[in-house]
């Protein structure tokens, strides 16, 4: 799955069919030629504006970049895919816009404890990361209570979980752009707002799946130290009341598929790992600022579960591939509810596609459903649930209803009355 990271050779001149989609998706205008030097190596959406090239009305079809359906068909048979083809039918929901977070955040982290949502870290822009915590109170719907994170704590791609008082904070990326990870691990006592060290992970990871299960802090998957290669390793350490009971992490059964940005929950004594991806942006070789450059990514819909047998079981997959959902979920009654994310890139344009649906997975019946539409497509949302209301804040939203590629990093907070399927 791992792509070469060396310099790419030019792929030569590829013939293009340039299709004007326009607002209604019509019309074939012209053929032309395009020198395609790289499909993934361009530092696409991570420039100053966080956006891919301004090419919203045009779909280009390089002959080397056909989707599966396209393969084996000649030109006259090619199907035109609109930019929004990945959207699933979903019920409309009424969303209320609440107070904006003090800062916008991409790749932040969040943990809900009772009526408080603790929101950590994240990128403000690609060149600026946050090193503090903001708190949203679901009872009076206000932000407040800002406090600092430890200076050594990672700023994005964190693993994080709570026991209801202590928040365990594992590894992650240290600094802006596509900088290296740290193995440093902390615990926050949310009552005293004090931080302590925990034994560092054996090696650092980006955005590993993280949960507390049977008295142990479990950390699995994520990307390896180069930010791209999926890690399969799984470690755990015994913890209680914010303290490690052991000096070292121990190895556990590796996860069947590695990679970052997955939802991970424990429900009725079973551990679930949901969605995610293989591959991620990497630092451009030699770049003094570790400039992010895009690499191939495979987003998946896989769901895995561990129970008494301590063997991974495969469960019904998500309605579509979904990644960047590690803090985008809430458990309500017997279901996990997941908001937004990223799905597989557009097969033709290769642009990143954001997710605009709310998913429900009933952990008793193991049934997925699409239970609503978001006000826009958005990734790395931070989610909470309180007294009938489903909330999300932060993340990076789409360019508009007709363009699911990522654009603005937001701090908005939204809520809707949650209606679950039985
Ligand atoms: C392309 O497919 C169409 C429809 O099957 C066929 O009529 C046509 O001859 C094909 N053209 C080429 C160049 O193979
Ligand atoms: C949230 O706000 C309500 C109303 O102001 C307050 O009574 C409550 O104590 C706050 N929650 C916490 C945990 O501080
Ligand atoms: C959760 O279950 C309770 C008890 O059955 C029910 O009253 C409530 O409406 C459910 N919540 C949602 C969001 O469906």
From TrEMBL:
UniProt KW keywords: Membrane, Transmembrane, Transmembrane helix
Pfam families per record: Kelch_KLHDC2_KLHL20_DRC7
Transmembrane annotation, as ranges: 12-35
Parts forming coiled coils: none
InterPro entries linked to this entry: Kelch-typ_b-propeller (IPR015915), Kelch_repeat-containing (IPR053256)
Domain of life: Eukaryota
UniProt protein name: Kelch repeat type 1
């Amino acid at each position: 799955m791992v792509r070469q990271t060396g310099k790419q050779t030019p792929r030569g001149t590829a013939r293009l069919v340039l299709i004007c989609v326009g607002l209604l998706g019509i019309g074939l205008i012209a053929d032309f030629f395009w020198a395609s030097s790289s499909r993934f190596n361009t530092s696409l959406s991570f420039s100053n504006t966080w956006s891919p090239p301004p090419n919203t009305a045009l779909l280009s079809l390089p002959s080397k970049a056909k989707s599966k359906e396209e393969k084996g068909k000649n030109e006259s048979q090619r199907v035109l895919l609109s930019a929004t083809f990945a959207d699933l039918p979903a019920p409309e929901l009424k969303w209320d816009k609440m107070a904006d977070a003090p800062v916008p955040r991409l790749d932040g982290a969040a943990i809900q404890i009772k009526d408080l949502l603790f929101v950590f870290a994240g990128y403000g822009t690609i060149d600026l990361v946050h090193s503090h915590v903001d708190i949203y109170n679901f009872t009076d719907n206000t932000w407040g209570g800002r406090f600092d994170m430890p200076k050594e704590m990672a700023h994005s791609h964190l693993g994080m979980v709570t026991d209801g008082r202590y928040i365990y904070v594992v590894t992650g990326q240290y600094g802006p752009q596509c900088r290296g990870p740290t193995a440093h691990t902390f615990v926050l006592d949310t009552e005293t707002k004090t931080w302590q060290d925990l034994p560092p992970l054996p090696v650092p990871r980006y955005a590993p799946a993280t949960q507390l299960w049977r008295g142990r802090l479990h950390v699995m998957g994520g990307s390896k130290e180069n930010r791209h290669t999926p890690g399969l390793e799984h470690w755990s350490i015994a913890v209680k009341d914010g303290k490690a009971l052991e000096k070292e992490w121990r190895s556990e059964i590796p996860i069947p598929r590695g990679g970052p940005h997955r939802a991970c929950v424990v429900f009725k004594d079973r551990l679930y790992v949901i969605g995610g991806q293989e591959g991620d942006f990497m630092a451009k070789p030699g770049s003094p600022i570790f400039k992010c450059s895009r690499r191939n990514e495979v987003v998946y819909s896989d769901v895995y579960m561990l129970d008494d047998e301590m063997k991974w079981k495969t469960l019904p997959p998500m309605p579509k591939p979904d990644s960047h959902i590690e803090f985008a979920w809430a458990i309500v009654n017997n279901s996990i509810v997941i908001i937004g994310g990223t799905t597989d890139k557009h097969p033709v344009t290769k642009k990143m596609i954001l997710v605009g649906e709310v998913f429900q997975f009933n952990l008793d019946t193991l049934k997925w459903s699409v239970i609503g539409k978001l006000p826009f497509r958005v990734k790395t949302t931070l989610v909470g649930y309180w007294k009938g209301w489903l909330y999300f804040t932060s993340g990076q939203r789409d360019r508009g209803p007709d363009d699911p590629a990522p654009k603005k990093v937001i701090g908005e907070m939204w809520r809707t009355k949650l209606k679950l399927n039985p």
